[in-house]
Amino acid sequence: MEMPIPDPAVVARKARLVERLAAVLPADAVIHDDAETRAYECDALTAYRCPPLVVVLPASTREVSEVLRICHDEGVPVVPRGSGTSLAGGALPTADCVLLGVARMTGVLEVDYPNRFVRVQAGRTNLSVSGAVEEEDFFYAPDPSSQLACAIAGNVAMNSGGAHCLKYGVTTNNLLGVTMVLMDGTVVELGGAHLDAGGLDLLGVVCGSEGQLGVVTEATLRILRKPEGARPVLMGFDSNEVAGACVADIIRAGILPVAIEFMDRPCIRACEAFAGAGYPDCEALLIVEVQGSDAEIDAQLARIMAIARTHDPVELRESESEEESARIWLGRKSAFGAMGQINDYMCLDGTIPVSSLPFVLKRIGEMSAEYGLDVANVFHAGDGNMHPLILFDANRPGDLETCEAFGAEILKLCVEVGGCLTGEHGVGIEKRDLMLHQYAGADLEAQMAVKDVFDPDWLLNPAKVFPLSVSDTRRTGRRTGRQTAA
Amino acid sequence: MEPRSEAELAEAVAGAAGPLRVVGGGTRPIGAPVAGDPLPVAGLAGVSLYEPGALTLVAAAGTPLAEVEQTLAVEGQRLGFEPMDHRPLLGRAGVPTIGGVAAANVSGPRRIQAGACRDSLLGVRFVDGRGAVLKNGGRVMKNVTGYDLVKLMAGAFGTLGVLTEVAFKVQAIPETEATLVATGLDAGEAVDRLSAALGSPYDITGAAHLGPGCGAPEARTVVRIEGLADSVRYRAGALKSALGGDWQVIGDEASAALWREVRDVAPFAAGDAPVWRVSVKPSDGPVLVAVLEQAGLAKRAILDWGGGLVWVEVDDDPGDGGAAAIRDELARLGGHATLVRGSDALRARVPVFQPEPAPLAAISAGLRAKFDPRGILNPGLMGRC
Ligand SMILES: Cc1cc2nc3c(=O)[nH]c(=O)nc-3n(C[C@H](O)[C@H](O)[C@H](O)COP(=O)(O)OP(=O)(O)OC[C@H]3O[C@@H](n4cnc5c(N)ncnc54)[C@H](O)[C@@H]3O)c2cc1C
Ligand SMILES: Cc1cc2nc3c(=O)[nH]c(=O)nc-3n(C[C@H](O)[C@H](O)[C@H](O)COP(=O)(O)OP(=O)(O)OC[C@H]3O[C@@H](n4cnc5c(N)ncnc54)[C@H](O)[C@@H]3O)c2cc1C
């Protein structure tokens, strides 16, 4: 992966930088020892690593502001970091950057049940936001699979989603406001504890901007009352096509499940071997979950099962108990772990129009034969967000490169059928160079113009999201060459 | 100049010598009055893609909203965000367009549950102030490829670009609906009840309070439930006992008619007193109304979104249509106010949109300068720039 060559002038100023940072932060919040900065050398895209010049761990908006003012002053790039679970290399440092971690900012600032919001510091983990409002039976809806670890900061930056976003939407649909620090240290408030933006929807563009427009320090999030109950049904089919048609029919019938998960045969087998969830041996599996009171769940599931029966399922199993529900979900939830046991894998994240599902799965099967690498598919079928897992052997020379080439082909296919390169993981460095397959140069110019306004010197998380070739002129002056990150 | 295609529209913008006034259907003259040559987009019309099984619809920006709604209704679907029709309030004729809905981020009562227009907007194509044709987003539900300019375009009122095509996520029309109605509550009590309803597990899709004189002599507090018939019956019953007090349940046509009234702020129709649309924390809605009443400014108020959306009709007396009083109070409470109805003179005199703090105003101005360097797209509509 090509990365810009670190600015030697910045690296040479390390001592002064550390001194200035130490003047505004507690001693233990500035990490500059090589052994310790190494702990921050990558996020969950572990194939690429580079220790940052300095790591800072501020504890308040004021401290973040002071850090940014200094970095702005010194012309030092800043890479914001939440919990480092990005799968796209979004939080990958550069050797000349200050990595700004918000892991010490975990407080709950305000819980307001009548107005249904919670205000938290941005480093708080996703799951613990729900934890903070659980006593009144409320929850925070977006639920990425990484929710135990990932921070709201990263969720906002990546506009993260989860299994239940078919009903509840993704981060942007549940985010009411943020406190954010601009690169020059200015603190701004976007949105608030009310719905809708006044003026231009700057909050909307900040959400999903991958840490390139400002550092988010606080977030006001919409919270919802938990439903009375939830229950899944498991359906097996002997072709992907039929399972896809069943998904479309359910949606078309006007029933909105909270989740529709799809697994193909390789995935079913791996999950079954790993978790022993009692899955049938078939081509395609759907897990459909609905919510409400017992009576409502019965009514909805009756309709869903009637639709499924018209597609001749090889298995149709409504959960009879909490324990059975847990078992149905167990296999799906352990998909990534299960695949990891078999082999190294690369997890893709593209979105397609649901109607293209059978065609895309067929093409992936054909390409799998061409590239000689197995693929297992597991995804959020209700909204077409696919996660093909390409299996490879990291110890076999050339395998990673083949895998990357194959992955790129699949993502291009997603775009060709009317979808997009990433549905929830973000572009980061991983999909940066594919951006021109989805957008024309002018479209990317328009996006970069937004960064020009928020961060005119391009110091915040540079070299992410946009292909280096198209962002080059904006980064030159500061950056003149490139190198390959190990 | 009446462009019939995106290319013609781009050419018209590129070749424009002076300011342009972007006109969809001419039904929402919101914002400061714009002096400029009209640039109509009604020539760009038609639904180009509709996949009921994928809940997506793509249409040219000038497509009449009614045509979009009819197309969807054939498949038992609709726009979830329940766009308001501004015609009754603003006393306009004309044909609202889907592009105008997106440009003004127009949402209705269901916004509390289904999100705003911008939450359903999946993708846009637009022409910037230089005449360049650009796109962002797409037609799939989940997409985090690059920056989300879709949100930026929604609610920009045509000041960053002229929308040529919009892609929406749609939803199924539920089997039935029912509304709980209580009468005679004051705004404070009403919002307490609405908060309790919205904090219940019964999936409320509308929660409003119409003050005295808003369509009925007595105040009405209303809560809507939608879904499968059995489920609606169950939830209405459960909610009624959870809320306590005296609630009447109305269904079907009566319920639908009531929510059209709330959606279109119909009680304020056919007048010319200034009308403000204020977005606040729900519990602050009654506070704001009380302050304005004490100042002798508020004539009538309707609270939607559980109290968080305040429609207030004021006396024009102080000469600023209540702008100073409302904005002073918002400085304390937080939130923002837009003057939706007002004479051209009033809208030219007071800031129609909430003035922004300096750093945000600089960002907004910076974005306009990037997307419309010549300042020709609806200049000044959202404030001086
Ligand atoms: C096992 C696993 C499962 C996952 N499942 C899902 C899933 O279901 N859905 C999903 O959407 N994602 C998923 N992810 C991806 C990842 O968890 C999300 O993108 C998450 O939001 C990242 O949060 P983080 O706090 O770890 O951010 P980081 O990885 O630390 O950073 C991510 C991005 O956010 C930026 N950033 C961090 N903090 C700030 C800040 N304060 N201000 C501005 N920008 C900031 C960074 O610069 C970077 O660009 C998964 C990841 C893993 C490892
Ligand atoms: C002096 C003066 C004379 C006027 N004369 C007329 C007149 O003769 N006829 C008339 O209809 N109106 C007239 N108006 C009102 C004016 O047209 C409105 O302010 C607005 O520009 C028209 O939008 P709309 O009513 O079509 O609203 P909608 O179509 O409902 O649009 C709402 C908003 O979105 C913008 N918009 C609409 N479509 C798009 C799109 N595709 N892309 C981007 N933005 C879009 C509009 O500019 C408007 O701001 C006049 C205004 C003034 C100040």
Automatic annotation (TrEMBL), chain A:
Keywords: FAD, Flavoprotein, Oxidoreductase
InterPro entries linked: FAD-bd_oxidored_4_C (IPR004113), FAD-bd_PCMH (IPR016166), FAD-bd_PCMH-like_sf (IPR036318), FAD-bd_PCMH_sub2 (IPR016169), FAD-linked_Oxase-like_C (IPR016164), FAD-linked_OxidoTrans_Type4 (IPR051914), Oxid_FAD_bind_N (IPR006094), Vanillyl_alc_oxidase_C-sub2 (IPR016171)
GO MF terms, alphabetically ordered: FAD binding; oxidoreductase activity
Source taxon at top rank: Bacteria
PROSITE patterns per UniProt: FAD_PCMH (PS51387)
Gene3D superfamilies: 3.30.465.10, 3.30.70.2740, Vanillyl-alcohol Oxidase, Chain A, domain 4 (1.10.45.10)
Cofactor(s), by name: FAD
Domain (FAD-binding PCMH-type): residue spans on this chain: 48-226
Protein name: FAD-binding protein
From TrEMBL, chain B:
Designated name of the protein: FAD-binding protein
Domain FAD-binding PCMH-type, first and last residues per copy: 1-173
Organism of origin: Pukyongiella litopenaei
Annotated GO MF terms: catalytic activity; FAD binding
Signal peptide: none
Keyword vocabulary terms for this entry: FAD, Flavoprotein
Pfam family, one: FAD_binding_4
Organism phylogeny: Bacteria, Pseudomonadati, Pseudomonadota, Alphaproteobacteria, Rhodobacterales
InterPro entries: FAD-bd_PCMH, FAD-bd_PCMH-like_sf, FAD-bd_PCMH_sub2, FAD-linked_Oxase-like_C, Oxid_FAD_bind_N
